[in-house]
Structures are given as C-alpha cells and as structure tokens.
Amino acid sequence: MTPPIIKRYFIAFDQHKWTGLAAWILVAGASVLFAKQEPPPKQYGASGEMLFVQPPVIFSKTGTDIQQQAQVLSKDALLNEQVLEIVAKRVGKKPKELTGKIAIQLPKPPGKGEAPPPPRFALGYSDTDEKRAFTVLDTLMKVMVEQSRLVNNKRLSDRIKGIQERLPAAEKDLRAAERRLEQYTKREGVLLLAARDGSLVSGITSSQQQQRQSQIQLQAIDAQIRSLQARLGLTPDQAYTSSALSADPIIANLRAQIYQAESQKTLLSEQGYRAAHPRLVELNTQLEAYNKLLRERAAEVIGNNGIGQSLVTSSKIRQDSSLDPSRQQLAQQLVTLKTQRDTLREQLAGLARQEQQLRREYLTIPNKQLEQARLQQTVKLKQDLYSRIQAALVDAQAAQAETGTSLSILTPVQVNEIKQDPPNPVLIVAAGAGIGFIVGNGLIFLLGSLGGILQTMEEIRAALVQRDVEVLGILPYILVVDPEGGETPIVVAPNSPYLEVYERFRSKLRLVGETAPKVVLFTSTTDKEGKSVSAYNLAIASARAGKRTLLIEADLRSPSMCKVLKVAPDPDANVEPLRYYGSLSECIRLVPEVENLYIVPSPGPMRQPASILESSEFQRLLEDAKGRFDMAILDAPAISLCNDARMLEPLTDGTILVTRPGYTGGNLLGEIADELSESEDITLLGAIINGADISIPAPTVAESQTLLSEEPETVQPKPASVSTNGARKK
C-alpha cells in the first residue's frame, strides 16, 4: 500500500499542479534575472579594536561593580539606538543604513579550566566609499568611548539616587521598631526583670509559706473556738450578743426595774388583786414601757446588723444579758477568736489570689521573653539595613571620583578593499531551479493541507467513526483502460473485478436495521464525490444478484447519465416533466445490457426541480417502485448544494452519504454527518468511502472494451498508469 503522505501529495498534485508550476517558474525566473545583474561595486572594509580599560586603583566597591558591568556588555548594549543615532547624525546617514553594515566580534566566554580571553573586541564596517568607511568606524569608536563614560556616570547617579530614596524609609522603619521595643520594655520590663533575678519565683514561694503558716494558726484558733463553745454553750454570734448586753449598764438598770415591777405584780396577784385594779394596770403599763425600752436599747447595743444574734422578745434579751463576769470574759474571748479566724481566712484567701496572680505572670514569662527577643531582633535587622544603606551611599559618593570610561581605542581604524568573487550565473540558475522545485512542491503540499480536504480514506473513516456513522463500504478507485481512449467508472461488464466490491456493499446494506431497506437515497457533501457512480454500480450489482432494481435519477439539476447504460432519454421529458413522471410506462426504461435493471432518466436540468420532486406524480412513482421492485435507488444532488435530498428522504427507507478522499471537506463532512445523525426526521443508514486506494485486480483490455464513457461531472481523476493490484502509481 502507498503511504498516506504520498497519497496526500499525489492528490494535492492533481489539484494544485499548475500553482506549483507557476511557483517554480517564478523562482527560476528570479534566479535568471539575478544571474544577469551587473557585478556589485567595490567594497571597502574598515576595522579597528577597542579595549575594556580598568582604572589603576579603585577604592570603592561601587566603582568596581560598575567597571565589571561595563566589561560584560552585549552587542546590543554596545550598538544601542542612541549610539547609532549619534554616529548617523555626525556622518550624515540614517541609523537604519548603519545597522546592517556594522560588525562587532566580542571575545568568546572561556571554557572550563581555560584562561579568560583578553578584554578587547573588534569592530568592522563596510562601504563602497573608502573615506566614508573610515569616517563612520572612527566616529563609532569615539562615540562608544563617550557613551561608555556617560553610561557609567548615569549608572552611578541612578545608584546614588536609588540609595537616597531608600534611606528615609529605612530610617523610618528603624525608628518605629525602636519605639515598639521601648514601649514594650516600659510595659513588661518590671516583670521580665523579676523573672531574670528570681524575685517572681521567690514571691510565689513566700506566698505559699505564708499560706501554710496561716492555715496552722487558723487550725489553732478553730480548736480554741470549739473549746469555748463547749464551755459556754454559745456560738460566737450568741456570745457576742450576750457579752454586749451583759456589759451595758442601761440594760442592767432596765432589767432591775422590770424585775422589781414583776415582783410587785406577783405580790399583788397573790394578795388577791384583780387585773383591773389600778395598781396592776399601772404595773403592766410600766412593764410594757420597760420592755420596749429594753428592746430598743438591745437593738442599739448589738446593732442587729448581722454581727450578733437578733433579739425579738424582752425575755430573750433579759436571758442573754444575764452573764456573770467570768462567763462574760469567756464570751468576749470567743468573739475575739472569731474575729482572728475571719481575719486569717481573709488573709489566706488574699495570699491564694496573690499566688495565682504570680503563677499566671510566671506562665507568660516565656512568651514575653520571646516577644522582647523578636522586637530586639527586628531592631537589629533594621539597624543593619540602615547601616548598610548608609555605607552604600558613602561608597557610591566616593566612587564619583573614580568612575570614568570603560572603553578605549586599542587599534586605530584601518581600511582595506574587500575582494569579491563574481557570481557564477550557471550556479545561480541551477540553485534557483532547485529552490523553485522545492518551493513548488512545498506549495502544492501546503495548499492541499490548508484546503480542509480529507486526503486519505483513513482520515475519512476516522471522521465518520468519531460521529458514530457506520461505514457501509470502502469502494475502490475504478480505472478501466479503453483502447480507444475512453474511460468510465460504471461497472457494466458481468466479469468485472469491481463488481464483487459492490456486491459486498449491497450485502452489508441489507443487514442495516431490523428490515432490509428497499428504497435508498444516495447523496454527498459536495459534487465530484462519485455519488452517481456509486448509485449506478450498486444498482448494477443488485440487478446482477437477481433483484428487480430501479435506478431513479433524482438530480433534476444535472443532465441524465443514462447514455452510459445505452438508454436514450426522452427528448420531450423536460417540456412536461409532470406528465413524464405520471406515465410510468414512459419514464421507466429497461437497461438492455443488464438484466433486472430499470432506470428513470432525469429530464434535467430543470428550472424548478423542487416543485417536481414534491409533486404527486413523483411520489406515486416512488410508491409504485416500493411495490414492483426489490430495490429502488435514488441518485439525489449533493446535500450542501440544495435541499432536494432532505425533501426526498422521508419518502425513502434511509440515506447513504458518499465521501471521497481528496474531495470531501473535513468541516463540511462533520456538519452534515452531525445534522443527518441527530435529526429525528432523517434516517442515516451509513456512509461509503468512494475512490479509495485498495487492492483490486486490474481489468483486462477485453473487459474495458465493453464499457462506455461517462459524463464529465462523475469522471474520476486519471492517473498516469495502474498497477496489477489496482493501486495508482506515477
């Protein structure tokens, strides 16, 4: 098999050979004209050398850096636009005229282990005028020296300006960092100092020791309180109340008066005085007054503010205020111990709170120390940056006295005549012919690739498979050599080797769907893809298989091809096409050389073919074909040229899309395949690849003599010769 790229080239050659020939003639003619040109005028070459200079002593680092930067300049930096403009202005030329004539040769970078090359480079300039060549190159070298000095000074000025712009920001950052450190030290310095000298840990330890001592004292006081409570039978609050009441002289006087009044009342009651007796009433009144005064005085003494025990009755007050001196002393001691216990408890709680506070502060010490270290580190970094910027500024200012030019003229300009060999016209013409041949063939291949045409059957198959369109058959490139010079791709001979391929196509078509289609429509994406040839040959193969087959030429926009089957079309059919299709006996013709094959020739070309295809006469023809014939094949126009195929498809069992390498466009095939496969009103049975390069035994001369010629629209491209296996060759 021929490689796909070779097939693509031959197909592109058939389509664009005249374009390639024109390109070859154009390039070859240009070479002839170039060979006839007069010899170029004399050329003079000016050359000179320049040296990267180093000042004898450089004290500043900035000056050293600038000198080193000047020695690693590239060609574009040395011959920049500013240098060329100055030189062009001085010599009276345009910068573009100097760009292509100035040559510069920089020293090559040293390899590994090699010594560095000498710090110099060569310059060259060519011109037809000897004096002008000298002037241009001499001016260029002097301008480069001047520009080197200006560039170094500008670099130094830019560096100083950049440092001066950065210095205020660096100083501002340093001062801000110092303020943050100062504020933090003022806020947390005491605690951090206490952590460093150990006073914080000592405070925690001392607080714990004081808490232990207070707990011991509290336990001793609790023991004393329990002992006194047992001896007195009073709580500390009761002891405070009784002690306060017993020590008050007013309460003692009121108690005595109450006691005296009660004694008189008891005596009178024993003597038989009634309660209504004035004396008893007076005593009761006195008792009420004394009891009221007693309660008021008791409230004043004990305060009734929650410290002592509240007293509500006079009897209770008199009972609690009757302590003897010894018990009164014990009660006062009990109250004192209670006060000491409360004091110790408050002191113990304060010590516990103090310890917790010290512990919390102790836990924050690591974070505070880290924060202080971070602030100190920030200040140090800002200080280092500020110091470096200041040092760089001082160094750059010192470099102003050291910076000068980095280039000097090593070798003055020398001018020599450039010897040129005259061009050989024969070689120029031969080279032009060869280049033209390459350009022509490359242009042919490029035009074939850019046309969007699928050049091989592999590309068409891949495009169809990608869109889930079944490939019903791959039909060969039919070539029949007629001794009289005619060629036709219609397979009429019963012993043609191509008939077997169409028989396989017919057999596969019968297996499509649940029932074999009887009425099929042939269409293509565009013209010259061989849809008519495929429809004719399929009809012949079906008739050879013993099936009554009707071939309907439904392309009313083109003339009929029925002459290739030796069938004469009706000359009056185009005058009254509806009457022509209405009379089945007139429009259906028997093919004389193929048994079981009938054909309805087209009356075209017609002016309004769509109205004829939509007529009832044409539809009755299709309905009659379904009942009378085993297979009916419609040859419709290309689907991209008109809508005839879309109108006829509902009257058939399905559509077959015909493609052909070298003619089918990739984008057009994709659009039409998607439209047909996704439409609910159209049944796409599949597609065939026509004109493929596959192995088919070549027909004999005797077989080819029995075949007829075809119409120009369906004639396939004629290759130079054909091999025995059917593959095209040059």
Notes on the protein architecture:
This protein is an alpha/beta fold and 730 residues long. It contains 24 helices and 14 strands. The strands form 3 sheets. Strands 5-12-11-6-10-7-9-8 form an 8-stranded mixed sheet, sandwiched between helices. Strand 13 and strand 14 form a beta hairpin. The longest helix is centred in the N-terminal third of the chain and has 68 residues. The chain is flat, with a radius of gyration of 62 Å. The C terminus is likely disordered.
Radius of gyration: 62 Å
How many helical elements? 24
Helical content, roughly?
55-70%
Strand order of the largest sheet: 5-12-11-6-10-7-9-8
* Main sheet: strands, sense, barrel: 8 strands, mixed
Shape: flat
Beta content comes to 5-15%
Please count the beta strands (DSSP E, at least 2 residues each): 14
First-to-last CA distance: 14 Å
Helical/strand content category? alpha/beta
Uncertain stretches of 5 or more adjacent residues: 481-486, 699-730
Mean pLDDT: 80
